[in-house]
């Protein structure tokens, strides 16, 4: 099968890489640190074995790092990566509007969005990230929206890249379980996106019980199904296959009815276009703990990279634990490894979020979900199911235990949204 062509490093780069391998033999293991759990360009980050589903032994750890370093001698050059990042064939917002005047996508002036957010008042900030700040705002027609304002740093190419990537994706997709795009603003150094306001916080906040609400098991499975459907749509039913590349709990927003909407497409990439292509060669971007280990080693991005992240998310969703728990005992620090060990010993029910009640149905549901999660997070991408198959498996679990939903508690939407209301226009 034909694969995407890649450039090789020149001899001087190869020499530097081999010298780097030599240093690995003498590097103190204590220097291994994990990146912070945030979305960023990780193309220059040295990863330890924590990025794999099952952490290798001490001996295998050194081998893993050496193989990664050797592999860097044969990965595409940085220029190839940058060209590939810019070569996504998804339609831009300007192209989208030119062919579909009834798209419903609006162009806003910065002045309009300043008015909508009381001049970008800190009191209306609902999110912060490497890209910039997200504000709650009210448009002239009364709609509540989320306004994502990029940091004004012309020397940071990543900001421009994330902005363009999100524009391309949001302007070309529409699904109930994806955050809806409303419009954008571009003036001078200002780069602003306007999307629907999802008023019930994100999944990670609810798993941390930040708003005093414990998500019951049935609601968690419904959330998993919503996310699976969203990713399936991106992979199979969008105009062009799209790889999200940053599936994680903080990028899953919840409505007042606790339905999930996937957000944040700053790292998204168009997938392989030709029928005989197997992957896209690109820089490593994403969040530590959710990253596909094969993608890290080979720089080859596929839809199965999203599947891996979804497997991590499934375990996080039902255990309540983050992918990497720095403050736990060593044998519980990597949640996937810990959960797999418990599952293998027939103690799967002990991995369930302790805030949830247990029972025969809960135990059966959990075991089925964990089995799927481990399949999704297999180290080799060929061992992972496609996203559509994962969604079907979750839906079949729900149908099989449909009576379980009759006894679910009634959840009331939290006060996750900021109390300050945007100005009335």
From TrEMBL:
Binding site for ATP: 152
The EC number(s) this enzyme carries: 2.7.11.1
Catalytic activity: L-threonyl-[protein] + ATP = O-phospho-L-threonyl-[protein] + ADP + H(+); L-seryl-[protein] + ATP = O-phospho-L-seryl-[protein] + ADP + H(+)
PROSITE patterns recorded: PROTEIN_KINASE_ATP, PROTEIN_KINASE_DOM, PROTEIN_KINASE_ST
GO molecular function: ATP binding; protein serine/threonine kinase activity
Start and end residues of each Protein kinase domain: 120-396
SUPFAM superfamilies: Protein kinase-like (PK-like)
Keyword annotations from UniProtKB, A to Z: ATP-binding, Kinase, Nucleotide-binding, Serine/threonine-protein kinase, Transferase
Gene3D superfamilies: Phosphorylase Kinase, domain 1, Transferase(Phosphotransferase) domain 1
Family: Belongs to the protein kinase superfamily.
Protein name: non-specific serine/threonine protein kinase
Native source organism of the sequence: Ceratopteris richardii
């Amino acid at each position: 099968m034909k694969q995407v062509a890649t450039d090789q490093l020149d001899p001087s780069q190869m020499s530097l890489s081999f010298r780097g391998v030599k240093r690995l033999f003498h590097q103190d293991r204590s220097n291994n640190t994990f990146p912070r759990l945030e979305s960023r360009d990780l193309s220059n980050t040295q990863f330890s074995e924590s990025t794999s589903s099952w952490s290798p032994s001490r001996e295998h750890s050194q081998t893993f790092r050496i193989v990664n370093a050797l592999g860097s001698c044969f990965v595409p050059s940085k220029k190839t990566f940058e060209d590939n990042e810019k070569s996504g064939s998804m339609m831009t917002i300007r192209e989208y509007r030119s062919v579909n005047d009834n798209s419903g996508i609006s162009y806003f002036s910065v002045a309009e969005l300043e008015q909508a957010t009381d001049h970008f008042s800190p009191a209306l900030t609902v999110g912060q990230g490497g890209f910039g700040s997200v504000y709650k705002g009210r448009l002239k027609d009364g709609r509540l929206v989320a306004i994502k304002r990029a940091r004004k740093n012309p020397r940071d190419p990543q900001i421009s890249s994330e902005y363009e990537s999100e524009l391309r994706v949001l302007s070309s997709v529409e699904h109930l379980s994806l955050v809806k795009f409303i419009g954008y603003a571009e003036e001078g150094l200002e780069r602003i996106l306007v999307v629907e306001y999802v008023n019930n916080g994100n999944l990670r906040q609810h798993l941390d019980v930040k708003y005093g609400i414990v998500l019951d098991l049935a609601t968690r499975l419904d959330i998993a199904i919503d996310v699976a459907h969203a990713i399936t749509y991106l992979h199979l039913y969008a105009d062009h296959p799209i790889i999200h590349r940053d599936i994680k709990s903080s990028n899953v927003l919840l409505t007042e009815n606790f339905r999930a909407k996937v957000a944040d497409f700053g790292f998204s990439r168009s997938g392989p276009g030709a029928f005989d292509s197997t992957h896209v060669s690109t820089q490593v971007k994403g969040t530590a703990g959710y990253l596909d280990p094969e993608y890290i080693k080979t720089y080859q991005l596929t839809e199965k990279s999203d599947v891996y992240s979804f497997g991590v998310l499934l375990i996080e969703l039902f255990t309540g634990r983050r992918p990497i728990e720095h403050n736990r005992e060593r044998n519980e620090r990597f949640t996937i490894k810990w959960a797999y060990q418990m599952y293998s010993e027939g103690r799967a029910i002990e991995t369930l979020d302790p805030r949830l009640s247990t029972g025969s149905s809960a135990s059966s549901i959990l075991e089925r979900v964990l089995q799927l999660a481990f399949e999704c997070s297999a180290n080799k991408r060929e061992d992972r199911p496609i996203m559509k198959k994962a969604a079907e498996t979750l839906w079949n679990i729900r149908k099989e235990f449909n009576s379980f939903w009759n006894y679910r508690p009634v959840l009331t939407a939290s006060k996750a949204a900021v109390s300050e209301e945007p100005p009335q226009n």
